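Quick log. Single chain, no ligands specified.
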Amino acid sequence: VLEMVGGDNARRSLNALAADGRLSVIGVLGAMEISFPILPLMRNRITVQGLSIGHRRAFERMNQAIEALGIRPVIDKVYGFDEVPQALQHLEKGPFGKIVITTS
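-> predicted structure:
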């Protein structure tokens, strides 16, 4: 799982991992601290790693690799902007994939 938000979202990303999964923290939009219990990491052999994109060339290479490998996010449900309350309720239930809110 690529974690780009931080804070409480990191815990949700961690919970989405299967055994032997990897949580790659690539950025933070929220809190600069991530806190979660250690037992699930040990029990499920989870790897947590921090990634730094670095300079623009590295960012472009990363995007090329994502495209070449066909990496796509798992989207659970798409909501319109007028459905934000329903999207937040869905989020509270622990979705399988990403919840997308469109603006048009």
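The beta strands are 2-3, 22-25, 47-50, 75-80, 98-102.
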